Amino acid sequence: MRTHGWGGATPASDDEAIERILDAASDAIDERGADIRIADVARTLGVSRQTVYNYFPGTSSLLEAAATRSAMRFVQRLTEHLAHISDPVDALVECLAYSLEWLPGDKHVQLMLVHDFTKASTGVTSEMGFKFGHALLAGLDVDWAQLGLLASDLDDLVEYLLRILQSFMIDPGRPPRTGEVLRAYLRRWVTPVLIAETSERRLDAVGRLSSRLR
Question: Which of 95, 125, 147, 176 could be 198's S-S partner, Cβ–Cβ 3.0 to 4.6 Å?
């Protein structure tokens, strides 16, 4: 760990140094979004740019680490919020509604959803967004397997949910829907999709079982 600078308060470990760098990067993201520079982060911390580079090789890796940390915290909050909701429609509706109510004020999670750090391109279906979305759905108290949905199906469902989030983030409506109005709207359009998909899976399962019994 480098000890020079740090505003006179040297970190006690590399882990603390990383956390302080990420804190400074997070403040910069709050101010400027993804348009941050290593020099700005270093100046905030009272260290040289090389000190920051010792922990993060470039702006992209720093952005990814800051966005990932914030996304993990958000997923934890959302998972706790959705705990004990076993009905799939209720879970998906509340997942979307809670996210839509939280995301406008969280530039870090927005960054995670739209940025592909390995390709320096944007798109709501970023690899990181998929990973966090899949982990979230898999961690719910919903028995997806009983509904006939496999891991690959959850990936498709994650993409569907991410595209809904993107649409609302681009244009939340006039006026924007909130609270129970938002939840009722989401329920109206999410329910038929999920019912149609799970019903088809059940019919397929029944058909396969009937074939075996013949």
Answer: 147
Give a yes or no: residue 62 inside a domain.
Answer: no
Statement: residue 204 has pLDDT above 50: yes
Name the token pair of 52.
């920051």
Q: In b/e form, how buried is each residue of 78-101, taking b as 16+ CB within 10 angstroms?
A: beeebeebeebbebbbbbbbbbbe
Same domain membership, residue 88 and residue 50: no
Both tokens of residue 90? 């209720």
Whether the CB-CB separation of 109 and 177 falls below 8 Å is answered with no
The count of structural domains within the chain is 2
Q: What is the pLDDT of residues 153-171, one digit of tens each?
A: 999 999 999 899 888 888 8
Contact 109, 69 (CB under 8 A): no
* 196: in domain: yes
d(CA 95, CA 99): 6
